Amino acid sequence: MLLIALVSQTALAQVNYSEHIAPIIYTHCTSCHRSGEIGPFPLTNYNEASAWAAMIKYVTQSRYMPPWKPDPDFKDYRKENYLTQQEIDLIAEWVDNGAPQGDPQLEPGLPQFPSGSQIGTPDLVLSFAQSHQVEGNNRDEYRYFVIPTGLTTDKKLVALEIRPGNSRVVHHTLVWQDTTGQAAASDAATPEYGYTGGGGSANFGGQLPGYVPGQKPILYTDGMAQTLYAGADLLLQMHYAPTPVDETDSTTINLFFADGPAPREVSSYVMVPFGNTLTNGPFVIQPNEVKTFHGTFTVPFKISLLGIAPHCHLLGKDWTAYAVTPNNDTINLISIPDWDFNWQGSYYFKSPLVIPTGSVLHAYGTYDNTTNNPFNPSNPPVTVSWGEGTNDEMFYLPFIYTRYQQGDENIVFEDDSIVLSNNSILGVESDLFQVFPNPAQSLIMVTYSLNQNVPVKFSIYQMDGTQVKVIAEEKMHLLGMHRNSFDVSYLSSGVYILLMEAGGKKYEQLISIKK
């Protein structure tokens, strides 16, 4: 009866930071908005959040923040970072009521973030040999840097994390490995550190994970990894954004290697608009033209598709990609209905997508080269074609995959928001955290942590112990922090028990339904 009374009191409580807003901010914002990360101000406690309350309301209502561009109704991805309408409304109500703190004792603890990394302790840290000066001429700069790995044996790379030395000017980074020495020779041929020119085009096949602001690196699991070869160099294409004053940058690369065997090689195929890729080429966008290009690729063997990373520049308007199997089934891959050059990224699926032999990958990219496009760099518009410069354009679409193995259909990749070091979570035990919103009407957001790889099951019970429904059948989850949403619109008003079963243990939270 005491627990029921507590839930009833919460249902009547004013929306406040400790109980309602802190879980949203710590889940969606703090990983970037903290010391040493790219957010322009920290959001790690009530005082910091309340000082920016009006701004937080504005950027969340406009969905400018968190920066998540894919359509969530088209496909699900790992590390999704967007707010539900219920969360946006909670923030607005909190701000409109004066941003009250509530009881500090009810505030969840700040997540434990690794120092100098978003995902853990790296096995190898590489850095620029010297700082690079970005000239204050208000122009974009694309520069290649060659970073020797110094590896004497092949390594299985499970994660690569770029740590920008100057987040004010690092717009994004593409990374390849070069085993030919050609990139080092290009660098040696110029007197300055690094070089310009199409140094990455010959290395599309050796592409490694890159960097864009606001996205956390992906950690490969289940025996999957990319081989980083002995003696290889890392080739970084750094895009430096325009700046009115001189800036310097010295970026760092964190490399994470598999602790044990990683027999499954992760590879990439990059769709670019050359050869017979486009059904409506060539890749040229005339002035005052809105044009959609259609690229195709036939899969030569059965694959498990892990991720996708569409890329274009300022004329980009939208992207859509899907696969069509020989049986004429359609597999959605990505839809970005409102392309934003400043918030692009790589998107990894929650489960491998099995793509049969002979399937055709379709990609559509639309470009707006008219004066109606506020981001068009040319006024009046000019003819635009392929090029690395921001004023040029690209139709560039990496597909990250591994060869199919029996059972890939049953793998579930879960969000590892607080990351893994030596197969353990950094100071986190398995737990089920407070559900929000609470009280709820139709949707609840559930956050939980796991300190090992275990099957997890969720159920709803009445207060007398009667099971109402299994809302998530038992599935294998990876160790880490997880977040899922569940539909509870079928429940009548009242108080219920949310039960999580994981690793032979049970975890409970009360949820109040108010219709």
Key words describing this protein structure:
mainly beta, Jelly Rolls, five-stranded mixed beta sheet, about 10% helix, globular, disordered N terminus
* Envelope shape: globular
Helix content: 10-25%
- Supply Rg: 24 Å
Task: Compute the number of helices.
Answer: 6
Whole-number average pLDDT? Answer: 86
Tally of structural domains: 4
Instruction: Using the 3D structure, state the CATH architecture of the largest domain.
Output: Sandwich
Task: Provide the β-strand percentage band.
Answer: 35-45%
Distance between the termini: 22 Å
Oligomeric state as shown: single chain
Unreliable stretches covering 5 or more consecutive residues: 1-12, 199-204, 416-428
Q: How does the helix and strand content classify structurally?
A: mainly beta
CATH class of the largest domain: Mainly Beta
Strand neighbour order, sheet with most strands: 1-10-4-7-11
CATH topology of the largest domain: Jelly Rolls
> Got a strand count?
30
Largest sheet, in brief, is: 5 strands, mixed
